[in-house]
Recover the amino acids of this structure.
């Protein structure tokens, strides 16, 4: 047995530059948790930067995360001219599968130039459970900080997270 | 079924960086991806979140007052996982250029006409056999600035979810016999010839409706829960 699947998955292709009228017109997908959802209401300000330090204005960012009920919530936005998109949601629960996981948000990134999407994660600064999170343990210590969002000085409910595609501060991306 | 695979897993997905595709130079991670095992990952959590699908969302020729210009086509197929199981009730999104090769997008400055009767975005949900069906018009080829005299082959963009984020797929469907595929870095980034051919739809006379529209079949295979990680495929 080679362990190979019976069928082979269809190849990925880039989302390209012209997706917005098809994928990101529904701004309601920026409100990840409905208003009645239990939990602390937060904003996630995600900024995407390329290898030259320029903002990426034409990316799709999808996020999903667990909440206390065990439900998984989904959001999707396009980045703006500053490479930014801001999701509104509630502070997530830890992983539904492994209870050692710290609270986190999963991200999937698509853009022109990427032939395949990227997977990464966002954790929250100050969460003690970060120290024992098994996913972060798989990441070299020097790079763990690239996965941790910081509280915005301007608003306590806003967390900022910079995604770097390349360079000294390149964000960790995962192969699943 | 038409999607049944030949060829090998290796080369069935594009590499993260394929230098002939110039846009990747500043946008592709330089560090290797970090492999995660599945047991502590909620990447396998079911994801489905979208507004309701409208009655004509899958018919891109009926989104405006008049009919769009171009060759009317039916695009249909089955969505299955690597074990051949139908992906039921999964969202399929489609977007494309118009018949002249122009996108209804503000940054597309290709000097070809916009069509007031065509936007080029649709969505549908697969049925219990994993089948989907769109009615649209055949998109035109268009130039881009990747290299001298670069033209994208006619293509439809597809986005699918499957049963978890592991199976998430964004891809492009091409048309049979298109001479531009041989020169297209996107198409050529998939090195296995069999995997390339699986991106090409098949003209289907049975799907074709007399006096009305040509039929193209495009079957899609999504990653299953236990499949090989992306990097091992390249």
């Amino acid at each position: 047995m080679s362990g190979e699947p019976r069928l082979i998955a269809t190849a990925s292709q880039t989302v390209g530059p012209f997706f917005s009228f098809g994928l990101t017109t529904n701004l309601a997908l920026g409100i990840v948790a409905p208003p009645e959802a239990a939990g602390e209401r937060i904003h996630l300000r995600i900024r995407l930067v390329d290898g030259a330090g320029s903002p990426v204005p034409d990316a799709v960012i999808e996020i999903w995360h667990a909440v206390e009920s065990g439900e998984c919530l989904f959001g999707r936005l396009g980045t703006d001219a500053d490479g930014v998109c801001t999701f509104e949601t509630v502070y997530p629960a830890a992983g539904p599968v492994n209870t050692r996981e710290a609270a986190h948000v999963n991200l999937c990134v698509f853009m022109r130039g990427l032939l395949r999407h990227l997977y990464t994660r966002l954790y929250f600064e100050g969460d003690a459970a970060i120290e024992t999170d098994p996913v972060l343990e798989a990441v070299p210590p020097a790079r763990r900080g690239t996965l941790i969002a910081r509280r915005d000085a301007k608003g306590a409910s806003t967390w900022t997270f910079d995604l770097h595609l390349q360079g000294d501060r390149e964000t960790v991306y995962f192969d699943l | 079924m038409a999607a049944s695979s030949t060829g090998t897993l290796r080369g069935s997905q594009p590499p993260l960086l394929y230098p002939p595709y110039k846009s990747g130079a500043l946008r592709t991670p330089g560090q290797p991806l970090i492999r995660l095992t599945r047991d502590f990952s909620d990447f396998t959590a079911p994801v489905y979140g979208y507004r309701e699908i409208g009655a004509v969302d899958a018919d891109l020729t009926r989104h405006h007052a008049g009919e769009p210009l171009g060759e009317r086509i039916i695009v249909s197929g089955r969505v299955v996982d690597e074990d051949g199981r139908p992906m039921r009730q999964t969202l399929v999104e489609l977007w494309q250029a118009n018949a002249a090769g122009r996108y209804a997008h503000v940054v597309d400055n290709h000097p070809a006409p916009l069509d007031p009767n065509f936007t080029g975005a649709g969505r549908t949900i697969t049925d219990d056999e994993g089948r989907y069906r769109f009615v649209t018009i055949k998109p035109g080829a268009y130039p881009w600035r990747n290299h001298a005299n670069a033209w994208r082959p006619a293509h439809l963009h597809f986005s699918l979810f499957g049963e978890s984020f592991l199976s998430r797929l964004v891809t492009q469907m091409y048309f049979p016999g298109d001479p531009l595929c041989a020169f297209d870095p996107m198409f050529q980034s998939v090195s296995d010839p069999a995997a390339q051919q699986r991106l090409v739809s098949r003209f289907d006379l049975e799907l074709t409706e007399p006096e009305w529209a040509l039929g193209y079949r495009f079957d899609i295979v999504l990653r299953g829960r236990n499949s090989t990680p992306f990097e091992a495929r390249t």
